Amino acid sequence: MTTCPLLFLPLLFLFIIPSFSSVTKLNVLSYGAKPDGSADSTKAFLAAWTQACASTSPASIYVPRGMFLLRNVKFQGQCKNRAISIRLDGTLVAPADYRAIGNADSWVLFQDVDGVSILGGKLDARGTALWACKNSGKSCPSGATSLSFSKSKNIVVAGLSSENSQMFHIVINGCQNVKMQGVTVTASGDSPNTDGIHVQLSSGVILNSKIQTGDDCVSIGPGATNLWMEQITCGPGHGISIGSLGKDQNEAGVQNVTVKRPHSSELRMNVQNPILIDQNYCPGNNNCPDQVSGIKVSDVTYRDIHGTSATQVAVNFDCSSKHPCSGIRLEGVSLTYKNELAAASCKHAGGTSFGVVQPTSCL
Ligand SMILES: *[C@@H]1O[C@H](CO)[C@@H](O)[C@H](O)[C@H]1NC(C)=O
């Protein structure tokens, strides 16, 4: 009888001690962050990040209720652990003067990180004054992307909302294995260049989001492969576009993209070009020699897509003669234009269609 506890003691250490999981918890308030929306909390957030990144065990950064003012900030890897979660009950706000971050590429940037999750919370970049500047034709800063991931992998963003971005809301660039679940994007329908989520040079990205914005809901740039989009709600906005592909001869191709049942919400009267592949994209119509894209688009599936289009051409595959689009599949597509039949347009696009496809497929 007396030997039993002795025998079990080592087992207790083996099995019970590790289950007191050693997550390092870091509250940004302990680092001097102020939830008042006016004191600059950038340094406090960076200090919490530095500690999380240096921790050899999983770390959790907590952002409580309140508004935290952040300037443009870079959360840099590589880190000592592969499990950093950032839990937000509060809102991150950009400085009121758009010039403070307007010339930075990104407002909140994660670079070279592996295993980062962002759970809940809100980003408010306060972009309206910059949109007004841009819409007035004055010269203005180009604006920062609200949230960017660069050269990173194993990223989860869940339940985050982004409001009033200066430029794009979210950019995924050079990443692998990124899941965005229940992410909400909101900006007014006439806000310039406020793409919802932009993906490029990245593989294994899964998106499931509600997007209301002034430009593309999702824009897909060069080098996006194995991209899966499901339950995307888009509108107002410009739909899901595979474009901006003609700028540079050496850009990587786009391959294996699936768009499964994005549905426009009740605010669905303003979805322009719900389905768009544009290899001849040329911003400002200058500096795009011969309009011949150097990159290839293949294996793009659109499945169970319903909604309304603000333009008559609801499906537009504008591919280049040099690299025609191939392997495009339309399965159960139904898009209307002002309660009439919408139109489809194909240039150099090859593929197949299955089931009911309206407008009638031009593949
Ligand atoms: C295409 O991408 C999906 C994820 O979006 C992946 O599960 C699938 O294996 C990929 N197919 C190929 C042929 O790589």
TrEMBL record:
It holds the Pfam family Glyco_hydro_28. InterPro entries: Glyco_hydro_28, Pectin_lyas_fold, Pectin_lyase_fold/virulence. Residues 1-21 form the signal peptide. GO terms for molecular function: polygalacturonase activity. The keyword DNA-binding does not apply. It comes from the Eukaryota. Keywords: Cell wall, Cell wall biogenesis/degradation, Glycosidase, Hydrolase, Secreted, Signal. It is found in: Secreted, Cell wall. GO terms for biological process: carbohydrate metabolic process; cell wall organization. PANTHER family: PTHR31375. Belongs to the glycosyl hydrolase 28 family. This is Polygalacturonase.
